[in-house]
Input
Amino acid sequence: MFPSRMTFAALTAGLLSASLASAQSMDEIIAKAVSPLPEDLRADATVFRYDEDTGERVILREGTNHVECQPTDEEGFTWCYPVADSERRDLSAQLSAQGLEGEELQEALQRAERAGQIKPMAFGSLIYRRFDTPDRIQYLYVVMLPGATAEDLGMPTGRQRDNALAGKGLPWMMRPGTPGAHLMIPINGTEYSNQAN
Output
């Protein structure tokens, strides 16, 4: 039995509404994904995610600039990265899908780098991060400085986590002298930041 014209119209309207809601949800996902970036980088950034089973990259929005972002993950983190380091992230996602994690995953990435399968992370690469709740640093820039020491670059190493949680964080270097050396820069005083006490 065929549906009446009224039923058909109602079904069509329902499907259209569901489609619009889905499109709006994707717009919201993309808007939040790019939110850690400075305003002038957001509109042209690529947004992607990884297939959990295979680690394959899935493009949600193709961008045209030099940064790319992932939607908020299940832990509440939203990340944006330089496109130049995408091969490393893609391999990391594929290895994670195969069950590697922690130090084992880092060692596999270092082996791939030594074998020329992926490029070393560019010195000075800037990673942008947001977190949803104030129990962690909510808005943070991370400058990757592989192999550098605090003495090389005149950087502080005094941990600023507690100050950052209070909305008063200052930069500090972590893991100096290692391939994972980086400068943590809490971003204070924005709508995304931990609020000052």
Q: What stands out?
A: The two ends are 66 Å apart (CA to CA). The longest strand covers residues 77-82. The chain has two domains: 1-32, 42-186.
